[in-house]
Design brief:
The chain has about 325 residues and is of the alpha/beta class. Helix content is about 20%, strand content about 30%. It has 3 domains: about 100 residues, Elongation Factor Tu (Ef-tu), domain 3, CATH 2.40.30; about 110 residues, 3-Layer(aba) Sandwich (Rossmann fold), CATH 3.40.50.80; about 90 residues, Ubiquitin-like (UB roll) (Roll). The longest helix has 14 residues.
Length: about 325
């Protein structure tokens, strides 16, 4: 799990361009050399938005010394205000607090890589495609969207260097014309690493079919919490014990670990409250956590929990390293 810590620095908007009617691209430069660190494909930066909170945006370009961070931000009219603020206020010459980069969606070494993007979920995957090209890896990129004009970086994806490696699935909003997930995944050789970022329906289909087929390594990046399984829906009470501070809190039905820790006076970094940003990740030492995040892989889950969404088995004690 790659991270550059939780510190903030000032970013300067040095370029802005419109990618389509809903998406802008920003290039963000920083002066403080301590924050200029190499990152891997799949990483994101935090943008600290006044009176809104922290929002995470994937880095579109692979790391290159001396180059600014590049992010693409889609306006979400029904969102919580972060993207609207970015579109309204971040023009060339503006400054903004940023943090990162951090990475909960890293590109793993593999003989073959399949990238499946839906909508704005293309942003981390185009960085992965560029990295595969740089390193001579075999890859395919499948881009799903309603229409051509909705695809960010469409002309770039048509470049001759990507010939035969990029496929577009444009369904015009008709599910019957959408991606045939089963046929695509069944055609992959065993050992293929599959990365998917996009709407919940797409990722659910890839997860379900990929698990049924077996032999594939599945990786996802989402923008909302995982749904509760039926056995978890009761949200039974449990206890959280904090090893460093000595604080013990009872988590009642309907409460979150995060809110309970904050109410007890502990300072816990947090942002999305939905299990996808990774800001609140906390090491756990013992117990039976129930993970509901979408930012951690199985290996990371053996060490960390996202306290904004995680729960624990009924009546159990979850010990955190905090």
């Amino acid at each position: 799990m790659q991270t550059a810590g939780r510190e903030k620095t000032i970013g300067h908007i040095v370029a802005r361009r419109t990618l389509n009617s809903a998406v802008i691209e920003l290039k963000i430069d920083i002066d403080d050399a301590r924050f200029i660190v190499p990152y891997e494909a799949g990483a994101h930066i935090d943008i600290h938005i006044p009176e809104v909170g922290v929002r995470q945006y994937s880095l579109v370009r692979p790391y290159s010394p001396g180059e600014p961070y590049v992010v693409a931000v889609q306006a979400a009219p029904d969102g919580r205000g972060g993207s609207r603020w970015v579109h309204q206020h971040l023009h060339v010459g503006a400054t903004v607090e940023i943090g990162g980069p951090r990475n909960h969606f890293p590109l793993r070494p593999a003989e073959r890589t399949l990238l499946i993007a839906g909508g704005i979920g293309l942003t981390p995957l185009i960085c992965m495609a560029d990295t595969c090209e740089r390193e001579g890896r075999a890859y395919d990129l499948v881009v799903c969207s309603r229409r051509e004009e909705n695809v960010v970086y469409f002309e770039e994806l048509l470049a001759p260097r990507r010939h035969g490696q990029v496929k577009f699935v444009l369904d015009d909003g008709d599910p019957s014309r959408g991606l045939d997930v089963a046929s695509l995944l069944r055609a992959q050789p065993a050992g293929t690493h599959v990365y998917c970022c996009g709407p919940a329906g797409l990722m659910t289909a890839v997860s379900r079919v990929g698990t049924e087929i077996g032999g594939l390594s599945l990786h996802f990046e989402a923008f909302s919490a995982a749904p509760l399984a039926a056995s978890e829906a009761q949200e039974a009470p449990f206890t959280v014990s904090c090893a460093q501070s000595g604080v013990t809190v009872e988590i009642r039905p309907g409460d979150t670990i995060l809110d309970s820790l904050l109410a007890a006076g502990l300072d816990v970094d947090h942002s999305c409250r939905e299990g996808y940003c990774g800001t609140c990740l906390t090491r756990w030492l013992s117990g039976e956590p129930i993970h509901r995040d979408t930012c951690l892989g199985e290996v990371e889950r053996s060490r960390y929990v996202a306290v904004c969404t995680a729960r624990a088995e009924a009546g159990s004690v979850l010990v955190l390293d905090i």
